[in-house]
Amino acid sequence: MTKHRIYKMSFASVYPHYVTKAEKKGRTKTEVDEIIRWLTGYSEKELETQLENETDFETFFAKAPKLNPSRALIRGVVCGVRVEDIEEPTMQEIRYLDKLIDELAKGKAMENILRKSC
Questions:
Q1: Which 8-state DSSP code applies to residue 114?
Q2: Which of 54, 61, 71, 115 has the fewest CB atoms within 10 Å, i.e. the most exposed one?
Q3: Are 58 and 14 in contact (CB under 8 A)?
Q4: Residue 39 lies in a domain
Q5: What is the DSSP secondary structure assignment for residue 56, as one 8-state letter?
Q6: Domain total of the chain
């Protein structure tokens, strides 16, 4: 799948996969939503609206109210690529979110996922 096709994918089409991944490991949709809101600055209602509108990833991140500056602390590998080394901004935001969901599914504490102890 090309980068362009990923950007144009509906965030709402991938969101259930984030929730399923978390729930399979005993985590919750509420935690997934908290991570997304922390990363993007969307309120609960704004996030619901983005999902209802089936906003694509590019627009979802471009219109995020306040991308969390602590997201620069997210390190690690997703899909064989180090997230901190991704140069394309939208792809890096997508992979930051993927990494946070991976951390949730692996049982990491929310405080650490949200970089509160850094």
A1: T
A2: 54
A3: no
A4: yes
A5: B
A6: 1
Question: Element (H or E) spanning 81, and its range?
Answer: strand 81-82
The pLDDT tens digits of the residues spanning 46-80 come to 999 999 999 999 999 999 999 999 999 999 999 89
With residue 68 as reference, give the H or E element that holds it.
none
Predicted TM-score (pTM) above 0.70: yes
> What is the domain-level CATH number for residue 53?
1.10.8.290
Question: Which structural domain, as residue segments, surrounds residue 71?
Answer: 3-113
Q: Could you give the angle at the alpha carbon of 36 between the alpha carbons of 34 and 38, nearest 5°?
A: 65
Has residue 118 been placed in a domain?
A: no
Question: Which ranges of the chain would DSSP assign to H, the alpha helix?
Answer: 3-8, 11-24, 29-40, 44-52, 57-62, 89-105, 110-113
* Residue 89 backbone phi and psi in degrees, to 5: -55, -45
